[in-house]
Design brief:
Layout: E1 2-7, H1 12-25, E2 30-36, E3 39-44, E4 56-66, E5 74-85, H2 93-100, E6 103-107, E7 114-120, E8 124-132, H3 135-140, H4 156-165, E9 173-176, H5 183-190, E10 194-199, H6 202-214, E11 220-223, E12 235-238, H7 253-267, E13 270-275, H8 278-285, E14 289-299, E15 302-310
Parallel strand pairs: 5-6, 5-7, 9-10, 9-12, 10-11, 12-13
Antiparallel strand pairs: 1-3, 1-4, 2-3, 4-8, 7-8, 13-15, 14-15
The protein binds S-adenosylmethionine (SAM).
S-adenosylmethionine (SAM) binds near residues 152, 177, 180 and 184.
Length: about 300
C-alpha cells in the first residue's frame, strides 16, 4: 500500500535514513516514491514497524497527490481535516475548499474517528491517518524528565533513530560501550532489544541503571573501558566522548576511537556511532565499510556525524 509518512523536525536525511533502517532491518520490501518535505510517500506492504521510529510524526494511507485540491469522493463518519503546509501563505479557506470537494459525512472536531491529513508542499498530498507517534512518550524520556541526567544525555528521538539505523530486528543484541546515562539503551530496550551497556565511569553505570528502571527496563551493565568489552553483538550503537563535555580520562579522542573501532571489529558486524568530524569517520573506515553519514549541526562549533558502518 502507499503510505504518507510525516517527518519530525527538519532533519529530513536522518529521518529518511531511519525509515530505510527500519524496513531493511525487518526485511520488508519498500520503495520511496517522492520526498516532499514535510512528508515522504512510500510503497510498502504495511507501515506498522514505523510505529517504532523516533523521527516521524504520523503515517497515513495515501489518497491523493497532485497539483490541485482534489475531489476525493469519500464518505466519512466523524471526520476531521487537518492541514499542514510547508509555506505559511495558504489559509483555512483551503480546508473549506477541500471539504467542499467531495467528502460526505459528519464532522467531529473533538473526537474524530477519521483524520484526513492534508499536506501542502511542492504538491498537495492527502491521506487517511493510520497512526501517530506520540510526542508525550518522547517528552517523558527527555533529559530533564529522567531521574539522572547530564549535559551529555542524548535526545530520545535521536537515540532511537541511531538504533534503527543499525538495521536490527526486535530481540537483537545491542551494546552501547559508552552508555553514559543510558539514553540509547532505553530506546533499544523499549523497542524490544536485548541491551548491554558499559562505561568507564561508575557514576554513569549507576545513572543508566536508575534511568532504565524508570521505564521498567534492565540491561546487562558493567564498568569497563571500551577495550575491555567481550562477547558478540548484532550491533554497537553508541555516542562516544567528543573531547568536550564528557571526559576521556586524558586520552586523545582519536586514540580512543582507534581502540574503540578495533574492539568493535572483534565483536560485531554493524556499528552506528555519532562522531565529531571527518578524521574520526576515517578511523572507522580502517575497520568497517562506511555505509551512511548524516551530519546534524548541534551548534556553531559542533556537528555530529551519525555514521553507519558495516563489515
Ligand atoms: C557522550 S557520553 C555518552 C552519552 C550517552 N549517549 C547519554 O545519552 O548519556 C560518553 C561516555 O563515554 C564514557 N567514556 C569515556 N571514555 C571511555 C572509555 N575509555 N571507555 C568507556 N567509556 C568511556 C564517558 O564516561 C561518558 O559517559
Amino acid at each position: 500500500m502507499k503510505l504518507i509518512v510525516e517527518l519530525w523536525g527538519d532533519i529530513q536525511n536522518l529521518s529518511i535514513g531511519e525509515i530505510r533502517g527500519i524496513f531493511e532491518g525487518e526485511e520488508i520490501p519498500y520503495k520511496i516514491i517522492i520526498e516532499d518535505y514535510p512528508i515522504i510517500l512510500l510503497e510498502a506492504e504495511n507501515g506498522k514497524f514505523l510505529q517504532r521510529a523516533g523521527l516521524i510524526r504520523r503515517v497515513s494511507q495515501h489518497l491523493y497527490s497532485g497539483r490541485d485540491i482534489p475531489r476525493l469522493n469519500l464518505y466519512m463518519e466523524d471526520y476531521v481535516i487537518r492541514v499542514r503546509r510547508r509555506e505559511k501563505n495558504i489559509g483555512p479557506k483551503n480546508i473549506e475548499r477541500i471539504r467542499a470537494k467531495g467528502i460526505e459525512g459528519s464532522v467531529d472536531l473533538k473526537n474524530p474517528k477519521n483524520v484526513i491529513r492534508v499536506y501542502i508542499a511542492s504538491n498537495i498530498h492527502v491521506g487517511l491517518e493510520i497512526f501517530e507517534v506520540k510526542s508525550e512518550e518522547f517528552e517523558k524520556r527527555k533529559a530533564k524528565n529522567l531521574p539522572i541526567s547530564y549535559p551529555i544525555t542524548m535526545h530520545p528521538r535521536l537515540a532511537r533513530a541511531m538504533v534503527n539505523l543499525a538495521r536490527v530486528k526486535e530481540g537483537s543484541k545491542i551494546i552501547d560501550p559508552f552508555c553514559g546515562t543510558g539514553s540509547i539503551l532505553i530506546e533499544a530496550g523499549l523497542m524490544g532489544m536485548q541491551i548491554y551497556g558499559s562505561d568507564i565511569d561508575l557514576r554513569m553505570i549507576d545513572a543508566s541503571e536508575i534511568n532504565l528502571r524508570k521505564f521498567g527496563l534492565k540491561a546487562h551493565l558493567k564498568v569497563s573501558d571500551v577495550g575491555g568489552i567481550e562477547g558478540k553483538y548484532d550491533a554497537v550503537v553508541t555516542d562516544p566522548p567528543y573531547g568536550r563535555s564528557s571526559s576521556t580520562k586524558g586520552e586523545s579522542i582519536y586514540s580512543l576511537y582507534e581502540r574503540a573501532f578495533k574492539k568493535f571489529s572483534e565483536i560485531t558486524e554493524k556499528v552506528v556511532i555519532a562522531l565529531p568530524d571527518k578524521r574520526a569517520i576515517n578511523i572507522g573506515e580502517k575497520y568497517f565499510h562506511l555505509r551512511e553519514v548524516y551530519p546534524i549541526r548541534v551548534h556553531k562549533s559542533l556537528t555530529r556525524y551519525f555514521s553507519y558502518y558495516q563489515k
